[in-house]
Amino acid sequence: MARKEYAFYPGCSSQKGASASNYLVSVQSMCKTLDIKMTEIPDWNCCGASVSYAESGELPRIAMNARNFALAETNLPGQEIVATCAACWLGSRESKERLEHNSQLLADTQTALKEAGLQIKAIPEIRHMVEVLIEDLGYDELAKPVKKPLQGMKFAGYVGCQTNRPFGIAGESFENPMYLDKLIETVGGEAVKYDQKVTCCGGALAFSEPEKAQAQIKDIIESAYDNGAEMLVTPCPLCQANTEVYQGQINKKYGTKFNMPVLYYSQLMTLAYGGSSKEAGLNGNVIRASKLEQFAGK
Length: 298
Description:
With 298 residues, the chain is α/β, with parallel strands linked by helices. The protein has 13 helices and 8 strands. Helix 2 packs across helix 12 and helix 3 packs across helix 4.
């Protein structure tokens, strides 16, 4: 029996074959080392983060998340839901809050779910993977499996918006959350101080107003570079994608020469635990983290 067991909600971007599938690979490797069992919720659906705010109304968005709650409770009773995607976690947390405090919304949602043969009997707790690592295990436990400390490497912990507000990680400052810095230090890396760790990556503007989004990304990457970081580290697939894939366009527009790898915390942890480049999903990064790939091969 595993040390910890959870109902796993990978979300669209982090599922196998999707844009952040390397995140999933590294999380699976990390959890194997930490003896955490993540059982995928059968037949889960999208949380609606990318489409449901576009004039579709509140009920469809809430019902989409509620369906996942019902499936988790039916198939994995008593287990907390854990998401790796910040948007999935935020949307699910919001839906849980609204259902628990709005009886009419709950009744309407139950009516919608009834059409699919489902019913909410109890809403599980919704956790982000970093909450599980920090709150259920703790930094001391996370440090124990470290075999290859990431010494001599400098990382900028990029928290972004969605794991920071409105819910945040327990005990953390909204203005200067430190959990990514602590995770970096736990695996032997150096967490640099910079002033953009909670700046929005412009994810909601990436297609509608790309110039504004790219200006924000430029500030994030530039600040990390200016403060000595070699790589960015994030808990959010959208933040990872935006800060990585637009660096080339930003270079053309602003004459910069950005080429900063953007990693997930789970990739760093997998490598520090002795995992290979493949187990850490480094081959899934657009901007290859050559220093980490060389480190993994030693």
